[in-house]
Write a structure and sequence with these properties.
3 domains, monosaccharide binding, five-stranded parallel β-sheet, carbohydrate derivative binding, G6P_Isomerase_C, Rossmann fold, isomerase, alpha/beta, binds 6-O-phosphono-alpha-D-glucopyranose
């Protein structure tokens, strides 16, 4: 059913009127006026805690935002996704990453097929394989156990497994070193190959389509390198594939016995829960991988049944929408105060920006409001010493999601309190800021004269009133990491529903791929690069000239 333009809905218009004043509210005053603000604007789900009280919202704002969620059909569309309806309209596909984490005793029939049974059959294969590699029963061609695993994939076939392996570092198998090669830039592969021994290395070629140019070239390079040290017959002990494309896997020379399938209803950026997570299962073991799935399932169940007022993904999405729409925030910064979540901002970039980086509705007309903000970030406290300056005093307001674990997974004394102190202090500073009068008083107390003090006041003033969310968990465990990722998946889904975009295609990546193929022919062949604009022609000519030096 075609949705009306969002600006034409009654709830959006009610929000617009409310925002006239509300967007100027001072959070300092909101906190001072209501001692219950923290308990009112916080929520628990699946082991996670979300504090969204440091946003320019109150209970009325949240109520109006939830009216909008209802009017846009978030609940019905959520149910359609969970039921396996083909909500990815431009590709005529269901969207069922949630089915990848359904327990074995559930059933979900899509196109006459029980997908839960299919999922668990592949999970069994992953369990068996990962157990054998981890125990040392799976041997390389010279009879030695595997010591290094190289995941070759890009986008969703890289960011998920890489981020999760890093995040669950403290659960990793001591013998297995994980490597990830994604870039077509040979330096990426080169840096890994120089560290590994062909006799003890397992390559996972991970690609949903098994046609992605970067992955295919990297896989061929790995294969040629391997065959310089071993025989064709040895390949089966060192190369496995993860894909939906059995024919292409066979054509590459990987025995389908060593292939871990998944399905077209799993989007690349939602695929870490599928066999794309094989690297994770190898690193942390199948038991923890299962716990990771269970944590995501707990968040799924919360998202599916919790009333919108207590629904964490919905609240996170709606507050994000408020900031984007009414405060004009065009970017969102992710600040994990956990070094093991180092790759989480990069993971969220693909999840959010590839899903909702769209400008037309499902019906093909322009969305009449701004859509997905730019998502970016870095771990705290490092980020504080790099770009937090701009977040505190720059001319744009950038909301921040702080993410932290209350307890560390290391036992080094003295670090964790300092980390958390910084995390909480930053959200406090973004909210309260520091007024000119406060700066003035400080400077005078330090003994500065009036002229000198006045000259410094504007530079040392913090506007404050800058929004942030804080997401806390007990420890970064497999289930809580699963819940965290699922939280953001569903947040992305809800925002896609508001904007009425298809969050599950990514046509925007295609044009560059086609043009790169053309230019590649020109760089490597005799074709004169004169079909382009003068800039592109000029760059191609420079590259060709340099290669002939
Ligand atoms: O897994 P693959 O089929 O190799 O795709 C890898 C990636 O490349 C594509 O260009 C898409 O933009 C991503 O959504 C996808 O995750």
């Amino acid at each position: 059913m075609r949705q009306p333009a969002i600006t034409a809905t009654a709830s959006f218009q009610a929000l617009e009127s409310h925002a006239v004043d509300a967007k100027h509210w001072q959070m300092r005053q909101l906190f001072a006026a209501d001692p219950q603000r923290f308990p009112k604007l916080t929520v628990d789900a699946a082991g996670l805690f979300l504090d969204y009280s440091k946003n320019r919202v109150d209970a009325t704002t949240v109520g109006l935002l939830l009216d909008l969620a209802r009017e846009r059909g978030v609940e019905a569309q959520r149910d359609a996704m969970f039921a396996g309806e083909k909500i990815n309209l431009t590709e005529h596909r269901a969207v069922l990453h949630t089915a990848l984490r359904l327990p074995r005793d559930k059933a979900l029939v899509v196109d006459g097929q029980d997908v839960v049974a299919d999922v668990h059959a592949v999970l069994e294969h992953m369990r068996d394989f990962s157990d054998r590699v981890r125990s040392g029963a799976w041997l390389g061609h010279s009879g030695k156990p595997i010591t290094d695993v190289v995941n070759i994939g890009i986008g969703g076939s890289d960011l998920g497994p890489k981020m999760v392996c890093l995040a669950l570092r403290s659960y990793a198998h001591p013998r297995l070193k994980m490597h990830f090669v994604s870039n077509v830039d040979g330096h990426d592969m080169d840096a890994v190959l120089e560290q590994v021994d062909p006799a003890t290395t397992l390559f996972i070629v991970a690609s949903k389509t098994f046609v992605t140019a970067e992955t295919m070239l990297n896989a061929q390079t790995a294969r040629s390198w391997f065959l310089r040290h071993a025989k064709e017959d040895d390949l089966a002990r060192h190369f496995v594939a993860v894909s939906t494309n059995t024919e292409a896997v066979k054509a590459f020379g990987i025995d389908p016995v060593n292939m871990f399938p998944f399905w077209d209803w799993v989007g690349g950026r939602y695929s870490v829960w599928s066999s794309i997570g094989l690297a994770v299962a190898l690193s942390v073991g199948f038991g923890y991988f299962n716990d990771f799935l269970a944590g995501a399932h707990a968040m799924d169940e919360h998202f599916r049944v919790a009333p919108l007022e207590q629904n964490m993904p919905v609240l996170l999405a709606m507050v994000g929408f408020w900031n984007r729409q009414f405060l004009g925030c065009s970017s969102l910064s992710i600040a994990p105060y956990h070094q093991d979540l180092n790759r989480f901002p990069a993971y969220l970039q693909q999840l959010d920006m590839e899903s909702n980086g769209k400008r037309v509705t499902k019906g093909g007309v322009p969305v009449d409001v701004p859509t997905c903000p730019v998502v970016w970030g870095e771990c705290g406290t490092n980020a504080q010493h790099a770009y937090f300056q701009l977040l505190h005093q720059g001319s744009d307001v950038t909301p921040i999601d702080f993410i932290a674990a209350l307890r560390p997974t290391h036992d080094l004394p003295g670090h964790h309190d300092s980390l958390l102190a910084n995390c909480f202090a930053q959200s406090e500073a973004f909210m309260t800021g520091k007024t000119g009068d406060e700066v003035r008083a400080d400077l005078r107390a330090q003994g500065l004269g009036e002229v000198e003090a006045e000259a410094l006041v504007p530079h040392k003033t913090f506007p404050g009133n800058r929004p942030s969310n804080t997401i806390l968990m007990d420890q970064l465990t497999p289930p809580l990491l699963g819940a965290l990722i699922a939280l953001y998946e569903h947040k992305t889904f809800v925002q896609g529903v508001l904007w009425d975009v298809n969050s599950f295609d990514q046509w925007g990546v295609e044009l560059g791929k086609v043009l790169a193929k053309n230019i590649h022919h020109e760089l490597t062949g005799e074709i004169a690069p004169e079909r382009h604009d003068s800039s592109t022609n000029g760059l191609i000519i420079m590259a060709k000239a340099a290669q002939h030096i």
